[in-house]
Structure formats: C-alpha cells, structure tokens
C-alpha cells in the first residue's frame, strides 16, 4: 500500500511520517510512504504521474478550501483510495468532506496523546479496505445506483423495495435503515436481480424480504413490518414465483 | 312506463351525487361502500321521494355528507358534496332546456327521460371538469384555513337553499320559462360565489406571504444581532489578549513554569476554544446567499444553543440562490432542524451537525443528529401520519415534509439511520 502525506507544518509532518514508517517496518506488510511533503502542489504534480492508495492530508482552518480542492483532485483521479484528514477543526468541515470526498476518517491534531493510536487504527482500516478492493472482482449481489455523479453499490440483501416517488422521475429505495431517493425509473431496476419483482405500477419488491402476502387487500408485508402494494394483475406472478 | 323512467332518472342522479364527492376526495371504492350507498342512500331516497317529494334531497345530501365525512374526516370533502348538488342542479336545468329546445317533437316523447339523463350526464361531466380546473387553481394557493373552509361551506349552503326555493316556487305551467330564468340566476349566483371565494383566498394568501416576510425579517434581524454580538466579543477578546500576555509575562519573569502551564491550559485554551466554536457556527452562514435562510438558520442555531445542544454548521463553499421558492425550502429545512433539536433535547449527549454542500450542479443540505438508538426506530414509521415521539400530535413533521416535496421535481429527500446517528439529506438539484 502506497501512502502519501501532506502536512504544512514540518514538525507535524515528521511526526506523522515517523509513526507510519515505524509501523510499516514493524508489520512488514508492504506499506511504504511514497511522498511526504509540506506543499499541496507537490501532491498535485505527483498525481499526474503516479498513484497512491492512502493519503494523509492536513487541512488548515485558514485555507480549508485547499484541503477540499486537494481532496477533490485526488478523488477524481482515484475513486477508490483512502483519504484521511489530519486537522485541528474537524467540526467545521466534517460533513462536507464526508460527502464531497468520502473521507475515510478525521484525525484531530490537538489531542497529541491520541495522535499515534488514531493514525494507526486509521491506517489499519485503510489497509483492510485496500485488500478488499483487490478481492472484489465479481460483484453479483450488489445493485448500482448513480447519485449526483457518484456511484453507490447497494447490497441486494439491504433492499426491501423500490417505490416510484409521488413526483415523476424519482425513485425511493427502501433499504435497511434508509430511504434513498434518486432520479431514475422503476423500469431500470426490474431485471437487475432475480429476486426483484415488479408487483405494482409503482413498486418493485425484493422477494426474499416478503413475510406475507395479503391477497385480498393486495398488500405485501415485509420482514421489517413495512408494507407495499401489489396490483391484481401482478400479484399472481408473485405468488407463483414465491411458492 | 313513465314512472319507471322517473325512478331510473332518480337513481342516476343519486349515483352521480354520490360518485362526484367520492371521486374528488379520492375515496377508495370497495364492495362495502357500494353496499352502503345502495341500501342506505339510494333505496331510502327513492322511497322518500314517493312520500315527501323533492324534500327527499335533504336526506340524500345529509347521508352523503355523513358518509364522505366519516371516510375522509376533512371539511373540504363536505364542500365537494354541496358543490356536486349545485352542479347537478345546474346540469339538470341545462339538460331540461336542451331536451326541450331540440327534441320537442312527439316522436321523442317516449324516450324523454332517457334523453334527459344522457344530456344531464354529459353536462355534469363538463361541469365537473370545469370545477376541477377552478378547484385546482384555488388549491394551488395552498391555504389551509379553518375559517375559509367553513365560510365557503356556509356560502355554498346558502346558494343551495336559494336554488331550491327557486325550484319549489317554479310554475308548472310555465315550466320551460322558469327553467330558463332559474338557470340564468344560478349561473350568475355560482359565478359570483367562485369570485367571492377567489377574492377571499387571494387576500388570505397575501396575508400569509406578509406573515412569512415578517418572520424572515425577524430571523434576519436576529442574524445581524448575533453578528454584532460576535463582533463585540471579538473586540473584547482582543482587549483581553493584552491582559493575558501580561499575565503570562509575569509567570515567565518569575520562571513559574507550573503556574504558567496551569494558567494556559485552564484559562486561555478553554475560553478560546468555546468562543471560536460559537463564532464559527454563525460566521460560516455568511457564505449562504439566501437571506431568509440565513435568518432561519440563525434562529435555529440560537434555539439549539439555548438548549445546550452542541451544534455545528458547515458552509465551506458559497451557496447561491436556488431555483425554487425560498418559503417552501425554508419550511422544509425548518422542519428537519426542529426535529433534530426536539430529539436532541431528550439526550444526555446530543450533537447536531448541519451542512450545506455543493455537489456538481446541486446543493446538498445535510442534517445529522444523535438519537436514542435503543428505541429501535424504523424509518417508514417516521413517515406515517400521526407518528410522534411526543405526547400530542406534534409528529406530523415528516409527513408534512413529504407533502411539501410532492410536486418539486428538483428536490430529493433521503433519510437514514447510522449507528446512533439520524441523517436527513435534502438534495436541491438543477442550479
């Protein structure tokens, strides 16, 4: 795993570098710091030629935009790498960085005594992710949804049903602990997986989540006690296929 | 033969009167409903017609009103019931006129009632469509005022009474003449009725707008006040700085290392951090260009602050004006933040994070708060009508939210529970 560190304070940079280098040497699991710099520009020019798997970036309160821009630049080049922010003021940027850059973690600088352990746990997490990426070749049980140019892979097992939003062109995915609304058409999700079944003009249900079908009132009860509708015509197919 | 056809006409009219409000209120037609309508409304109505004549309409009206009200529990549904009768009277008159004018020949005499029914149905359909158009215009004004619905129902009731007095006074000998005269009056009356209702709604709408503007100004005033307060604090802090440095110098001069350390960690660092956090929350708001939203957020932040809820607001990039009406947006954001604050008040260790984030061409509003995850919330339950964590019906917030979203193509709302965090995401697209 290739690691890049960018921190504008030389002393801090040295400290983080040492922590990581020591850990890498001890574990001997192929982690290397390929770049440690105080200049964000250097990271940008590094990106032009090379790639790394994990980035530790410092964001200053004064120029949080540079941290954000740098993060975005890295994300654009490599959607899968881990980005960790080392900062004094996570509270002012936490959600922004999570949404825009999908940051792996934030490490707060002030808590000096925690710095080392936080860096190491984050590093392990990044490594775990790095290994997982290598293994993930066949993704059959996931469904891909594009939201705002970003792609979300949703485990089929998390889906209860899709519902066409009251307003046109929108779909709400009813997931485990989440309702996710996005632009799209139900039709596009009809055939993506064998357990998904179009049971109504505005519903696609995950058959493996059905607890009970009330044929009389044409209501489908799901495992999480949520309900969705079935139409008279389509409920027959549902019965046949579930049995 | 004539009698039979009359009964047929009656049944058709009853069915129309029942079907109209049911269709407009979107009541689901079930076997039970058909049963009730047939045996509790239509059959008694016909029997009554034989006994007391035209007054049986009172029974029809009353029974339909009760049925519809029980099914919908809303005043506006009664309005539809009354309206259906007025329109039916209108359609009936027009039908009489047309049939009389164009089919007044002996050959048609036998099928007179049938013709009447057909023309009546056609007229009723046309009038319903016109009514639907007008009603939708009114509905778009989006005013739910108890007094206005009551007023319009009373007005409509008056219209009906007037109509029936005219009908009862009708001279059988000059039948078609009176129908003509009545129709003329009815049309004027109903048009006036709609104009009056339109005016009332227009005024109410204006008033609502003024009230919202006032709230906006109030919010903005609070924002300005808070900024001024921060400014004053800043000045005070600058002033204090000098004092702090002097004190530190004293510690250094006497080489009291321990005293210096104690002073630095316990007095300066704590004070500074608290101050900086409070200020940052508000000062990041100036990157939002929507003034009313700024005001709203200030108000909510101060609310959260006074309830001792740590609240962080992130606005890292400039947030421009969005292409939707700000009032609705503010209402939605208000509901989301209110929910977060309400939930936080019940916790020992609350936290709220709010962020406005620019993503490509859209803006994402995120509100994240801790919640009590031992309660085993289910998201779909939150969006059910009448759900509340509080005692009395205050939990309509999220239902309202979905309602406000209805015909807003550019909005998307996602909700999730993650560990002990409750996260609402409102995406405002297409900027």
From TrEMBL, chain A:
Keywords linked to the UniProt accession: Activator, Cytoplasm, DNA-binding, Phosphoprotein, Two-component regulatory system
Positions where 4-aspartylphosphate occurs in the chain: 58
PROSITE patterns referenced in this protein's UniProt entry, alphabetically: HTH_LYTTR, RESPONSE_REGULATORY
SUPFAM superfamilies hit by this protein: CheY-like (SSF52172)
Keyword DNA repair: no
Gene3D superfamilies linked: 3.40.50.2300, LytTr DNA-binding domain (2.40.50.1020)
GO MF terms, alphabetically ordered: DNA binding
Domain of life, per lineage: Bacteria
Domain HTH LytTR-type: 143-243
Ranges where the Response regulatory domain occurs: 2-124
InterPro entries found in the cross-reference section: CheY-like_superfamily (IPR011006), LytR-like (IPR046947), LytTR_DNA-bd_dom (IPR007492), Sig_transdc_resp-reg_receiver (IPR001789)
One Pfam entry name: Response_reg
Its job: Required for high-level post-exponential phase expression of a series of secreted proteins.
Designated name of the protein: LytTR family DNA-binding domain-containing protein
Source species: Sporosarcina aquimarina
UniProtKB/TrEMBL annotation, chain B:
Lineage top rank: taxon: Bacteria
Gene3D superfamilies referenced in this protein's UniProt entry, alphabetically: Histidine kinase-like ATPase, C-terminal domain
Protein name: GHKL domain-containing protein
Occurrences of domain Sensor histidine kinase NatK-like C-terminal (ranges): 327-428
UniProtKB keywords: Membrane, Transmembrane, Transmembrane helix
Xref: InterPro entries: HATPase_C_sf (IPR036890), NatK-like_C (IPR032834)
Regions crossing the membrane: 7-27, 33-66, 78-99, 111-131, 147-167, 179-204
